[in-house]
Amino acid sequence: MEFYHYQPLLDRPVRQKLADLQRNERLKHVIFAQQFSRQRLKHLGEIADMIRGLSRTEEGGIFLSQLLRHKRAMLYFTQASTRTFLSFQAACQILGMQCAEIRDPSLSSEFKGEQPLDSMRMFSSYFDIIFMRSKEPSFAECSAYLMNDLDRNQQRSVPIVNGGSGADEHPTQALLDIYTIQRSFSFSSPRDSKSSNRFDDLRRSYPSLTKGLDNKTYCFCGDIGRGRTVRSVAQLLSLFSNVKMIFVAPRHPKFALQRELRDVLLAAGVIVEEASSLRDVANQVDLVYMTRIQHEHNTPDDAKFFADLDDSLFTLNSGTMRALREYAAILHPFPRNTEIPFEIDSDHRATYFRQARNGMWSRAALTAYLFDIDTTIASHYREVFSTFHDYNQGVLGIT
Ligand code: NCD
What does pTM read for this prediction? Predict the structure, then answer.
């Protein structure tokens, strides 16, 4: 079976595909960021918080590690990855699930000419879920359709989770980004500030500030045109109300905001602006989402364009940091190049390492949800765990 078999399904607009990726009211496969509604994001954020809380104690960690002991995961990552791969692996470990991996296709039967979808069917024979990353944009989606066909024929079928497909989509990165933003804009983490009344203090300087993701200005900076992370997270942020987005990117048809994404955001009611320097907009934004220039995709002409470009326009520096609001979180999906200098890492607004760790909690929450054990976690947390541990959390200020 080859990808073109699914061409008519691939050619549909995303909204028409969503029903194929669900089972009843729940998600079956995770392929597009658009599969996450506000309600689902809230639920997954709560489950991630509970997994995080449970993992703090031996008893909670042991409870979690029993939940998926009888399941096995395949991590099929044939495109470069560090954080996504490792955080999925760590997420499986938290839930007690064993995993196997293929990272180098030259060591698997693809090298002998095996059809990629045959490989997927083989993985589904041995494993209970497949997490995958591929440079081929529609591979994860086609794999989900293959699993649906198998399901219809009452053959073995497993969930497919897209860990980054081509230049297209990165739904689980968007999930962890939203989780990180939810936490940042709850203004409750003592790590973000020494003050225990942080929100009230901030309101004195910023009277219109609200908690949550509504009423915010989000800035995206860097290689906007080629970045799948921005494409995915911007679509999820458009679910919130009174949102403005400022895209700071090189003025170039390939690297600036693409019309397709702009139209989707405008249709969702977002105010969209473009700027050519981060410094110019720094004082107006609630959050900065930095990205690197993806030089590995450059043509010789692109490389020449970047060689002549003043990249300080897309770089954080001490001037930009001074202009940024006191609470403005700085996110980055990583890896970084020079757009965030190391000196900034110790600033309380530098959220990117916490964001990467949040990837592990969010992916554990998503995995738990896909195996229908999210409610088991929630009841254990509410009925057994929080009664004993909330007191200590409050006293120790652990987050
Ligand atoms: C990104 C990716 O691969 O899309 N990284 C990630 O998953 N955390 C961004 C990038 O490579 O620049």
Answer: 0.95
